[in-house]
Amino acid sequence: MIREALFLNRHLALSNVVTIESIRLRSYLFNYPVSRPRRLRSNMLIRNMVAETMLRSDDFVMPLFIREDISEPEPIKSLPGQYRWPLNDKLINFVDQLVGSGIRSVILFGIPEHKDEWGSSAYEEHGVIQRAIRFLKDSFEDKLIVMADVCLCEYTDHGHCGVVKKLPNGRYIIDNDSTIELYAKTAVTYAESGVDVVAPSGMMDGQVKAIREALDRAGFNDIAIMAYSAKYASSFYGPFREAAASAPRFGDRRSYQMDPRNAHEALKEVVMDINEGADIVMVKPAMLYLDVIRLVKQNFPEIPLAAYQVSGEYAMLKAAIMNGWLDERKAILESLIAIRRAGADLIITYFAKDAVEYLSEVDRLF
User: Fold this and answer.
1) What residues does 5-aminolevulinate 1 bind to (predicted)?
2) Is residue 343 a contact partner of residue 299, using CB atoms and an 8 Å limit?
3) Is 206 found in the same domain as 349?
4) Known binder of ligand: residue 253?
5) At 137, which CATH number?
6) 151 labelled ligand-binding
């Protein structure tokens, strides 16, 4: 009976199927006092030996806000410990620290001096992100992966992620198809500047297809796309919108970002993005959507999955840490381990620099 139970248990585990029969067989195998789980928790060395989830510096992507009209780093009030960076040696010195600590990936968000209804600063040849990409790639070459967010919300004077169109009945909508043309145009200028990965975040239908086709036409077949595939209309983006000056002037983004009540819809979005040419897919936010991360990874294990620990999640933890309510090292690492354990291959996090510093303590802390 034990041999049969072991065989069936292994088969069911490999198939990821949970049934009444599998539960019955496992309960037969794992029974006190024969099974004592505490044996494998008895000391730090044993816990480390059997730990299922590991964090590495290569898992992290550091978000950077690049502002056009400043010469000194500017603290972001809503994101304690984070800054808007100028396009000068202050940025290079900070990124050099990141690279030296083992962080090899950054994702750039631009804050232009000029905004208009079309977000034209996003796709200017000498725009803030185009210059930042060239600046970083000239300084670090192949030592740094430079990703760039592709959206219009930081560049439009109305704060929406696309082209606003007024209908005959007086209503305003985001014109999907006009918007993705501008996303494609923006992505090509990033590629011309030397970007490694473009990351469309606007949640417009067909955005990945438009970008992939435009990149390929321009000869940039090797530029990867990290799609914000399952980006939810979350209340936890508030600090980011203050940091990037990208809050919508009217309305909200619920007509294009996903409903927080839906999980399986994320699979539809992921399938569409993969079919359109996404190389990496993403779930955003991360901590509040661990179930979605798990769902996506179980259904698409072969596709690299990123998760974004967003500004509100960072600010929430940071506030508790600053008030002494949470242990800083344990709270940061536990939050990132949870995202990794759920299935994320990459984690975009404002804690990246701190997390890498604390990685050497993981074995002692858990």
Assistant:
1) 241, 253
2) no
3) yes
4) yes
5) 3.20.20.70
6) yes
